[in-house]
Structures are given as structure tokens and as C-alpha cells.
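From the methods appendix. Each design record in this collection lists the discretized structure first, followed by the designed amino acid sequence. Records were kept in a plain field format so they could be parsed without special tools. The example shown here is representative of the layout used throughout.

RECORD:
C-ALPHA CELLS (289 positions):
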């Protein structure tokens, strides 16, 4: 007498038809089982209990597994989602800030533009920022910055950022720096004077590549321009490049007399910076020449 054939079962993991207790293709169990934790009946091939979620110990076919990634030691893997989120935030931040730094010139010297931190301002916050930029204190009314010319607005914001930097108020500098850069962006193409202003704003805000780009572009047009040499020396000093700083200061000392007699408007406006740079250059370079 012929024994009845075993019913064909479909593996829930790989879909192969078969019989017996295990799938001939992937090895997953085909027999009903119970959860070792809560004793609930398990479906054939189930890898987790539908009631309590505990692993069942069923094998997983290699075809269903992606290429494994080596585990990261030291608990770093738990921080991976945070790292990915941080990178995404930085990318979004750079894209948002990029509109403030669209250079009107095609020179590659304008390329390394660091994004400055952006203040999150609503309609009321923007109005308050304008008042503060104009020199008002919270709760008081200052000049109406919206009635100023673009040049006046940019210059006032520049003076505001420099004052805050001299006072050591770094958070306020980072608040106003993007506003100031945007004000100067509307004045493009920039004069050497405006490029120096942008470079100084970027310098105190920590955007050294942007500041250096302005120094390089000023000196490309006039290798002896005092403001370009001053800005170059300052960035070299902040970057810890003593050799480059001395090179800029040496060029400054060589060019100072012939450039000063030109009485350029930017030299008059930044006379204090020129006087201070001259004193610093004489101290660090003059005695060694």
C-alpha cells in the first residue's frame, strides 16, 4: 500500500515549494513552532514572534541579505544617525548661505566662499535686526535703515560688525555678519574698498577662505594695494602661517610710502588700520631687514 505523499509547503522566506521540516533551498524551518518566550504559535519560517517580537532563531537565506557592513567598534555605530543628520544639516546650511555669496566676477579667487551662520529671523525678528544694525538698542528706536542707500546700509552694518568684534561679542558678530555680507552683495561688482570690508567681516566671523579671496583679488588688481596686503597679513597670522605673514608685511613696508601719496579714498577711510598695520610690520619685520 502506497503511503500518502507529504503535503507540499511553501517556504515563507524564499518561496520554494518543499516538504519536511526544513526548506531545501534556504534551510528555513517549514514546521510549525512556538515562541520560546511567550509560547505563541509561529508561522513556518517566521524569524520573529508576531506577539512579543522575540527572535525565533530561524535562518535567513544569503540571497536575502545585503552585503554586510563591518560593525564599528567603540559604540560609534549608535551615533551614526546623528552624524548623518549633522552632515545633511551642514549641506542644507551651505546651500542656503550660498545665495549670499554669488560672486559677480568669474575669477576663481572668488570661489572659496565660506558660509556664515544664518540668523533665523521672522518678520518681526528681521525688523528688530534692522534696528539693531542701525545702532539701536533693544526697546529703543534707531535710524530707519530701510531708508538708507545700499552703500550707507552696507557701511553701517560693517561698522556694527567691527564694533561687536572689538567688544568680543562673537555671537552677535555671527548674527550680523550674514546681513552685512548680503548688504555688500547688492553693491557688486565690488571696489577694493568694499572687498576689504567684506574680507574683514569674513575674518572676524571666522570665514578665512572668503577673507583671503578678497585679499587675493585686491592684490591681483594692484599688487601694492595697502588694504590687500593688510588683509593678507591678518589672514596669514590667524592661519598660523608666519612665513606668509612676514612676506605680506615686507611688501607692505616697501609699498607704504608710494601708495600713501596716492590718497585713495579707501586709504583715508581705513587710515587707522593702515597706521596699526605699519606699526606691527615695523616691529616684526623692520628690525630684521
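DESIGN:
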Amino acid at each position: 500500500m502506497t503511503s500518502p505523499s507529504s503535503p507540499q509547503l511553501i517556504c515563507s522566506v524564499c518561496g520554494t515549494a518543499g516538504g519536511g521540516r526544513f526548506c531545501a533551498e534556504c534551510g528555513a524551518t517549514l514546521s510549525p513552532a512556538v515562541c520560546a518566550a511567550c509560547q505563541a504559535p509561529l508561522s513556518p519560517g517566521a524569524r520573529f514572534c508576531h506577539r512579543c517580537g522575540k527572535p525565533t532563531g530561524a535562518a535567513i537565506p544569503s540571497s536575502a541579505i545585503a552585503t554586510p557592513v563591518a560593525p564599528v567598534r567603540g559604540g560609534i555605530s549608535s551615533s551614526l544617525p546623528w552624524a548623518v543628520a549633522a552632515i545633511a544639516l551642514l549641506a542644507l546650511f551651505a546651500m542656503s548661505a550660498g545665495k549670499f555669496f554669488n560672486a559677480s566676477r568669474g575669477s576663481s579667487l572668488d570661489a572659496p566662499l565660506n558660509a556664515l551662520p544664518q540668523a533665523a529671523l521672522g518678520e518681526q525678528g528681521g525688523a528688530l535686526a534692522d534696528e539693531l544694525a542701525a545702532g539701536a538698542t533693544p526697546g529703543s528706536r534707531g535710524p530707519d535703515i530701510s531708508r538708507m542707500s545700499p552703500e550707507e546700509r552696507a557701511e553701517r552694518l560693517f561698522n556694527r560688525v567691527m564694533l561687536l568684534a572689538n567688544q568680543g561679542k562673537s555671537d552677535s558678530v555671527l548674527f550680523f555678519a550674514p546681513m552685512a555680507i548680503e548688504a555688500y552683495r547688492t553693491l557688486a561688482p565690488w571696489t577694493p574698498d568694499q572687498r576689504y570690508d567684506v574680507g574683514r567681516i569674513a575674518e572676524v566671523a571666522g570665514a578665512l577662505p572668503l577673507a583671503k579671496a578678497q585679499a587675493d583679488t585686491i592684490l591681483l588688481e594692484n599688487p601694492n594695494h595697502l588694504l590687500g596686503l593688510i588683509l593678507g597679513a591678518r589672514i596669514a597670522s590667524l592661519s598660523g602661517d608666519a612665513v606668509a605673514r612676514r612676506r605680506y608685511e615686507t611688501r607692505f613696508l616697501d609699498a607704504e610710502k608710494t601708495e600713501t601719496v596716492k590718497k585713495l579714498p579707501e586709504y583715508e577711510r581705513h587710515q587707522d588700520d593702515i597706521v596699526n598695520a605699519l606699526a606691527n610690520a615695523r616691529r616684526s619685520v623692520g628690525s630684521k631687514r
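APPENDIX NOTE: The mean pLDDT is 73.
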